Every structure is written in C-alpha cells, then in structure tokens.
Amino acid sequence: MFIRQTSTKHKKSNTTYIKHQLVESYRTDKGPRQRVIMELGTLTLPKSDWRKLAAVLESRLAGQESLFTEDATIVEAADAAMKHYHFVQTKSQEKQQRHEQRDLVTIDLQSIATSEYRSLGPELVAHTFWEHLGFNQILQNCGLSTEQQALAQAVIIGRLVAPSSDLASWNWLRNQTALLELLPVDLSNIRKDAVYEIADILLAHKDKIEKALRDQEALLFPSQTTLFLYDLTNTYFEGQCKNNALAKRGNSKEQRTERPLVTLALVVDQRGFPIFSRIYGGNQSEPQTLPEILKHLYVPEEPQLFSQERPTIVMDRGIATKETIQLLKSVGYPYLIVERRAVEKEYVQEFEQAKTTFEPIGHEIASGTVYVKKLLWENGSRVLCLSVGREQKEQAMDALKEERFLQDLGRLQASVTKGNIQLVEKVGERVGRLKERYPSTASHYDIVLQLDDAQKKVTTVTYDKKESRVKRQTLTGCYVIETSHQDLAAADIWRLYTTLTKIEEAFRSLKTDLGMRPVYHQQKSRTEGHLFISVLAYHLLICIEKTLAEQDDHRQWSTVCKALSTYQRSTIILTDDQDQIHHVRISSTPESAHQEIYRLLNVKDPLKRKHTVIAKRL
C-alpha cells in the first residue's frame, strides 16, 4: 500500500484542493489496477514519512503491530485516519441496513396527520435512573408484583416529572405522558384508586425501601459518610382534615398558619442523599424528634450505615436545645450545631472586635465575608461567627421594623396630645398592640405614660431607647457554632456547618419540584403515603443532579425537565394508494439540547417505531 496525492480545482473560485488517499495495487486479468482503501484528508506530514504512515495503516488494518509506533507524529496521524475510517465504515453499514429494512409504500401527502402527542424526554431520564437505582429489584424483594412495581414507577416518576395531587397524576398518566409505553405492564386502563393504593403499599415497606436505596446510592456515588444533616419542615393541608391525626395547628414555615399542618423530618448526608425520613403531626416539637431519629440511625446489627466511625450530626438552632445536645453526648454522637438560645450574648466583647481580631474567610464579594474565631469549650469547642452579609440583612430588617414602630408610636403620641384618646385603659391597649406587633423592636424601648392628677387620663407618651438596643446592634449577623470536635480549625467547622444548605435544598426540591405541598388527603395513612412518594421521587432527583454535577453541569432538575419537555412521542397518520390507513408511533428526533443531556446522563430511548395498518378508508 502507498499514499497518493490528488488535487482538484474549483472552477468558480479557482482554488486548488489537495487530498491524500491510502491506495492498494492489485493484479487482474487485464493487468495491474489500483483501489482506494482509505481517505486521509489533507496530510501535514512531510512526503518522506508517507511510506511509514502507509506501513502503520496497513498493519492496523491487518490487526498487526507496526514498527513505527515510537514515532509520535506518525502514530497521531494514523489514529486520526483510523478513526475516520471506522466512522465511514459504520455509516456505510447503517446505510446498507436501512436499505435492507425499507418498507416502501406510496403515500397520499394530503392525508398526513399527527395525534396522541405525549411527553417523553423527562420520563426517559427518570426511567433510566429508576433502573440505575435498582428500584424494581428493591420492590420485588419487598414482595411487590410486576404490576405493582410498574404502578409504583408510574406514580413516583409522575411525582418527579409532573408534581401535583394524586388525582391530577392519574389524569397525567392517562392523557399526557408516554411513560406507560416504557413499562413492562399495560397500565392504560389504570384505576384512580390504584394510585392511592400503591402509596399505601410502598409506605408499608418504608424502612426497607429507604435502606436499600441508601445502599444502592452508596455504590453508585461512593463517598465516606462523615456528616448527617438533620432538620424538619412542615407543609399545609387543603380542607378541614378533621379525621386526620397528623393535621395539627402549629408554626407554619410557609406562613400558612390558618391551615392545619404536617411535619416531615429528614436526614441527609453531606452531599444531599436521603438517609432516613419520618412524618409527624403539624404541632410536633422539633427537639423531641431527635431521640427517635437517633434510634433509627444506629442499629447495631447494621454497622454498614457508617464507614468506620459515627458521622457528625449537624443541626440548626430549631432543634438544638441543651437537652438535645446532652442526648447527643450521652449516645456518643459527634455534633455540630447552633444552639437555640442566643449564646452570642455571652461574647459581646469578642464580637465588638470581630472584624479586627477574628480570622476572615475571604470572598470575592465583601458581603460574603465571614469572620470566625475558635474557643475551646468543655470537651469540644465553640466558633464565634460574624457574617457580613447576614449583618447587613439583619440591620436592614431591624431598621425597617424600628422605623415602622416609631411611626406608629408617633401616631399614638399625636392622638394623646390632640385628646382623641386619653383614658389610661385605652392608651394601655394601644401600647400593648404596638408591643405585640413589634415584639423584637419594642423590647429595646421603655414607653412611659404621663398621667394627670386624677390618674385617669394620659397627658403625654414618651419613650427611651434601652442599652440593649446598642447590644443588639453589636450582635447583628453574629452566631455561635458549638461542636464536639476540638481538632478542626475554625474555618473548617464553619464550612461543615454551611452544609446545612444541602438539607434546605432537599426541602426546597420536595416542596417546589416534587409536589409535596399542599396536601389534599383527609386520612393519616394517605397523607404519609403522599409525603413518602415525594421522598422517593427525591432519590431520583438527587441522583440525576449529582450525575450532572460530576460532569461539571450544575443545572437543577427543573431546568433539565423544561429543556427535555419538547422531546415527545406521537402518532403519524398516513393513507396509501390502496386507501389503507397507517399509524406510525414514533419518538421525535432529539435536538442538540436533548442530545447533550442524554449524553451526560447516558440515556437511550428504548422505544421503537411501531407501524400498524388500522383500516381502509371508505
């Protein structure tokens, strides 16, 4: 074999193009002939190396080693040529296969129509990760039949792709998605009650399913577990829920105090993967949940939950009381918390000099800077923290509240001066309302009522700012992290505490992306089932987002879902020259945005084209 150079000239532009070919000589009855084995494009190698390159390519085509493998330039040129050769061979084989499988009929172009458009893009991704997590095997081990496994997949992926009420999910499955075509069982005639019933079945195996998913995620995303993040959130009900034992009035984190609530407790690791969940009534005291959670986290016969030592429990101030801290110490869990009580008040002098004596944790934006200082404390340590961004935010909030408080107090003073309101009881009521409306601000002011000689009417209202207001201004943006770790630096302790954002992200995904709120169920078991379906859907969501993040793509699931919403499956209706009506069920051609996501997540569309002759047109 040898390399041949050929040139062609463009007639209009008068430009000459040069290309190179690998050519083989062979003998025939009519004499020697030549045939092109491989197109090489335009070579940059000097002509003196062509013979070496031809020898390397000939050896590779024969499956042998070449003598010139140490010459990097020739090897690089050979690699590029072989890559192009294999590409051309593959395309040629695909073309031949298409020609062999062609099914040609004459079609009336005026008859072409489409119908039954169904969403497929997000469903494909969710279905792929359902299989990655081994959901079907997990459910089979729990005793679920093939039909129940398919129904569970439909409901959980439905919560991930189109979060809504169970009734709306039932309608979505029947009318809007191609997910049912991915399932091994025909669920086209699924009953409405079946959607509720599968949630009950899954809830009955909750602990076993959560443990199996935790183990599978540890295999897919290996990492040493060093932190457990624990927190609670609540959401609200629609309806009275008089017979629902979970529906209780409480402090709504969504400011929906007029509605009964239900509480979800969640433990995630430092990357956001769920470890354990529990459902409580809406009036559940947060600190009281910790003993039960710790009991479920540590099971002596299941040491694989922890790598070598117990992970550090990280909690926010809503749970961290003196009692819960003592509990963590008694059971031997390392911890990292911000205590519920205002511990920063004990360190006013230190915080006054924070920006000059503390260690700054730098940030490109000044408001993102945090100043930290570590102090040894009992058998652990405390880290004093001053966040500049938090300080600015709290000062702005305090200033707005104080401005409104003083405006309302000024109106009361004016009313008393004009004589519109003077009775001690009435003025006292107005002052009480002010303190109730602005409790944090009013506590820093002394309000004095000057009475007349009869002690029945108020003549003037005066106020003085307490010294505590200055102290409050000093402590804005300040908090104290307490931990059992003494060996960690202040900056490391602060960074560990900030991982609590992972559980906040989990709650945000559950409420916003996975339809956890509001809850429409009027029964306790159905409420628990509804929340558990959202938690299971979150397992899929976090695996999808982590797989993207590992490839430096930090899009959230909502963004991915929106990008894939235009990848659909539909039916094309055609009529041939024999008046036969053809239905072709086909997936759309993926666009570049779809292809990129599918490549990153290694997603393939398993659905084939389906051709059916329906009837003959009259």
Describe this structure in words.
The chain is an alpha+beta fold and 618 residues long. It has helices spanning 50-61, 72-100, 121-132, 135-141, 146-161, 166-175, 192-204, 206-220, 290-297, 322-330, 348-352, 354-357, 388-418, 424-437, 439-442, 467-475, 490-497, 501-513, 524-549, 557-564, 592-601; strands spanning 2-9, 16-28, 31-41, 113-119, 227-236, 261-269, 274-281, 312-315, 335-338, 359-361, 370-377, 380-387, 445-451, 458-465, 478-483, 568-575, 580-587, 610-616. The strands form 4 sheets. It has a 9-stranded mixed sheet with strand order 7-6-5-8-9-15-12-11-10, with helices on both faces.
| Radius of gyration, in angstroms, nearest whole number | 35 Å
Uncertain parts: none
Q: Mean of residue pLDDT?
A: 89
Helix content: 40-55%
Report how far apart the termini are: 64 Å
Largest sheet: 9 strands, mixed
In the sheet with the most strands, the strands line up as 7-6-5-8-9-15-12-11-10
Quote the beta fraction: 15-25%
Q: Count of helical segments?
A: 21
Keywords summarizing the entry:
four-stranded antiparallel sheet, elongated, alpha+beta, 618 residues, 18 strands
